[in-house]
Amino acid sequence: MSSLHIVPIPALNDNYIWLLQQGNEAIAIDAGQAEPVLAYVQQHGLQLVQIWVTHHHGDHTAGIAALQAAFPRCQVFGAHDIAAATQIVQEDSQISWQNKQIDVWQIAGHTANHLAYLLRDDEQLHVFCGDTLFSAGCGRVFPDSQPEWLYRSLQRIARLPSDTLLYPAHEYTASNLRFAAHIEPNNPHIAVAQAKAACTPTLPVSLAHEQQINPFLRVHLPEVQQRVAEHYQADLVDDVAVFTALREWKNRF
């Protein structure tokens, strides 16, 4: 049985800082706030040894300096635009921690340099995807990026094993499901997910579940394509065009 524990630490308004714990060591992912991480590691007698950063936005980085001050030997992994990074990582980089090798993917779309961290523990794959993919949704496309990049990144994630566990950095699920139900009002999986999201935390989530409810992973389906085309009263030539229009619709929903 695995000795790895993965804990969501609520931060700011709707962020999750994912904390990996094994033995007396811990890793924080997207440390947008220091105080809740410090409280947890001190309560459990842990040493914070690494911080992984998915992208440069302040709600994912603002707590790093204080955590480095508390744990001066803590390594910070991030892309070249992460000022606090002590180790620059990019596509195909690997990170070592205890007996594990973590793969780094570049999954541009929300931002140009957005990263994901893939950790396999025993037979289970865990993917820390930041703001690229949310349950029932995906991140906005910021000016340094492009919708097609985000589409390609989500398609790459969608090719992972169906039992992959996904760890987004925000609990946006209830809001996203309202939009998903608007796009696919007859999808029974969305209705079930809405009932669960109303009363319990929803993350992490399996890729198989997302493929049933997330409209941004379902743009190849005729029902979704027709709904988007009718909304915009336009012929959308391919899945990328459908995705781009769907993301724009969600921005205004």
TrEMBL record:
It holds the Pfam family HAGH_C. It catalyses: an S-(2-hydroxyacyl)glutathione + H2O = a 2-hydroxy carboxylate + glutathione + H(+). This is Hydroxyacylglutathione hydrolase. One of its GO terms (biological process) is methylglyoxal catabolic process to D-lactate via S-lactoyl-glutathione. Keywords: Hydrolase, Metal-binding, Zinc. It is an enzyme of class 3 (hydrolase). Thiolesterase that catalyzes the hydrolysis of S-D-lactoyl-glutathione to form glutathione and D-lactic acid. Zn(2+) 2 binds at residues 59-60, 131, 170. One of its GO terms (molecular function) is hydroxyacylglutathione hydrolase activity. The gene is gloB. Its cofactor is Zn(2+). HAMAP family: Glyoxalase_2 (MF_01374). Zn(2+) 1 binds at residues 55, 57, 110, 131. Residues 14-170 form the Metallo-beta-lactamase domain. Binds 2 Zn(2+) ions per subunit. Monomer. SMART domains: Lactamase_B (SM00849). CDD domains: hydroxyacylglutathione_hydrolase_MBL-fold. Pathway: Secondary metabolite metabolism; methylglyoxal degradation; (R)-lactate from methylglyoxal: step 2/2. Belongs to the metallo-beta-lactamase superfamily. Glyoxalase II family. Its EC number is 3.1.2.6.
